[in-house]
Amino acid sequence: MTDQIRSSHDGGVAVLTIDAPATRNALTLTLSAQLAEAVARAEADESVHALVITGAPPAFCAGADLDILAGAREDGLRAVYDGFLSVARCSLPTIAAVGGAAVGAGLNLALAADVRIVGAKAKFVARFLDLGIHPGGGMTWMIQRLVGPQKAAAMTLFGEVVGAEAAVEAGLALRLAEGDLVEAARELAQPAVDAPRDVLLATKRTLRHTASLTDHSAAVDAEIAPQLKSLTGPAFAERLDRLKARISGR
């Protein structure tokens, strides 16, 4: 079976699956490029409102291919980064459905998503120092923002492996899903599917912008223009009419 990024677009959700079972879904240059291309296709498809990234069982992603790392220079490393950075930069809401080990660059891929949900066998492993290499791809920034400096240090400097329940407790994952993990991700994505796509994408842009602000008034100013635009849009008018009809019909 050829290693590949499997992509399906259905019901407003694009599901991208790293399918490289012999290497536990390790990212090669080819797979990273395919992942970036699949993300771009999902963004360009106006029927898609959310993106789910997962790995073929039993792993989520075992990291970057070790042979590539052994000979990598800056261009090679940035080519490996392209896959998970495409998820980090994605304009769509993104969910990582982590059913197994997310290691090294695989951890970065999970961290790059807006939200992570986990299966019982999920685990998050930095592993960089264990291999004798420095973290890369923005890992130290992403992990500290999610779990704080102490937990980030435990994972990065002391090699602490974080399992599914501990990930939820630490805020690294939103919830532990029972049953089919991808279906759980689809259920989580449904409100985004139901939302007007332009307002959804504008809201994600605003979340990114206001995350760096320290002043409430600046956040109010950042939100007012896109909110005013949405208030004059057809989606709001249609939904307001339906809401009024339901209220009058009580």
From TrEMBL:
Name of protein: Enoyl-CoA hydratase
A Pfam family the protein falls into: ECH_1
Signal peptide positions (record): none
Family note: Belongs to the enoyl-CoA hydratase/isomerase family.
GO MF term list: catalytic activity
NCBIfam families: PRK05870.1
Species this protein is from: Amycolatopsis coloradensis
